[in-house]
Amino acid sequence: MATNPSTYSPSQSSERKQLQQQRRRLFQETDWTRFDGRGFQQCRPAFLKTGAASAASGSAFAAFGATKVIVSVFGPRESKKAMLYSSTGRLNCNVSYTAFSTSIRGQSSDHKEYSSMLHKALEGAIILETFPKTTVDVFALVVESGGGDLPVIITCASLALADAGIMMYDLVSSVSVSCFGRNIVIDPTSEEEACQDGNLMITCMPARNEVTQVTLTGEWSTAKINEAMELCLDACSKLAEIMRSCLKEAASAPS
């Protein structure tokens, strides 16, 4: 005798909204604990490694908590627009997500916007004059999206460019913070970003003390912006030290 197939129901959007509202109320409180146990001013553990893709001119892998990114760099190679001579090189950036990068299909970020922001963050750090009439392609793939995707993408891309031997003024590191009422939380997870009142991201060249990109969303007071920027800049400087250590280890490793 055949049995009826078991039935099941997916999580309803109303249930997700209710959970999000509960988290938002929690985040508005003065004192709360982050789900991963970190302090408000504590970044996720950062794992960085070069040589992630053997077929590329240079590559890197980055894992910041649940966020995992692979960046491959190709070139410099002859530009398709070589007929129009340029004394400087060209930089192309593309950001994509795997189909399984997020728990809910279709919730990944706007890839075109991220591609443009990645280009803006890196362009000022690359010495384009060193490869005229040629192009460098940067392909970033988000394997797993766990929050703070764009800062991780930018940081990983900078490391991949260095691994490819592309001349740069300095390494580029990026960090973001989320605002929850009175609280500022650094290096937010995707759950925290979903409930934030605002977000600030800074990309900089720490050794040169130069900022290459700033993005700001939500409502911020001037005092909060200053506090958030100081946190980001300090974290960017420390992250750059980890990036340099990664490159030194790769250079000293036996071939």
Characteristic key phrases:
255 residues; five-stranded mixed β-sheet; 5 helices; 28% strand; Ribosomal Protein S5, domain 2; alpha+beta; four-stranded antiparallel β-sheet
Short description:
It holds the Pfam family RNase_PH_C. The protein has helices at residues 13-28, 111-123, 149-163, 190-193, 222-252, and strands at 46-50, 58-64, 67-78, 90-97, 134-144, 173-180, 183-186, 198-205, 210-218.
How would you sum up this structure, described in words?
The protein has 255 residues and is α+β, with helices and mostly antiparallel strands. The protein has a single domain (37-250), classed as GHMP Kinase, N-terminal domain (Ribosomal Protein S5, domain 2, 2-Layer Sandwich), CATH 3.30.230.70. Helices cover 31% and strands 28% of the residues. It has five helices and nine strands; from the N terminus they run αββββαβαββαββα. It has helices spanning 13-28, 111-123, 149-163, 190-193, 222-252, and strands at residues 46-50, 58-64, 67-78, 90-97, 134-144, 173-180, 183-186, 198-205, 210-218. The strands form two sheets. The chain has a five-stranded mixed beta sheet. β6 and β7 (183-186) form a beta hairpin. α2 (111-123) crosses α3 (149-163). The termini are far apart. The model has no long low-confidence stretch (mean pLDDT 86).
